[in-house]
Amino acid sequence: EVQKVKLQGHSTDFTCLLSHFTGMAWKLSFALFVFLAALLYKQLQPPAPRIVGSPGGPPVTASRTKLKDGRHLAYLESGVPKEKAKYKIIFVHGFDSCRYDALQVSPV
């Protein structure tokens, strides 16, 4: 009977230890998963945009003027030379287009 009690006590200690180990393994596995998910998320993010005209950024390729608040406004001149022009027409494009979307009219 004494041996049975010792075996049962040992069995209970082993079960408790196994339960504690599996709980710890679960926590470590979850922490590793969160860490790897964070690394993957960081790798999938696009790089920060480069500012036009800044060191390492793309070059300025358009005619532009500086506004009072420090921003730049790019523009495109087209049509007849200034000396022959009778009218000045300014085409303002919408949000989802660019300066190249202006209607190209040939001189008459």
Can you walk me through this structure?
40% of the residues lie in helices and 7% in strands. It is mostly helical. It has 2 domains: 1-45; 60-108, no CATH class. Strands 1-2 form a two-stranded antiparallel ribbon. Strand 1 and strand 2 (72-75) form a beta hairpin. The longest helix is centred in the N-terminal third of the chain and has 43 residues, at 2-44. It is rod-shaped and about 95 Å long. The N and C termini lie far apart (116 Å). The relative contact order is 0.06. The chain crosses the membrane at residues 24-41. Keywords: Membrane, Transmembrane, Transmembrane helix. This is Serine aminopeptidase S33 domain-containing protein.
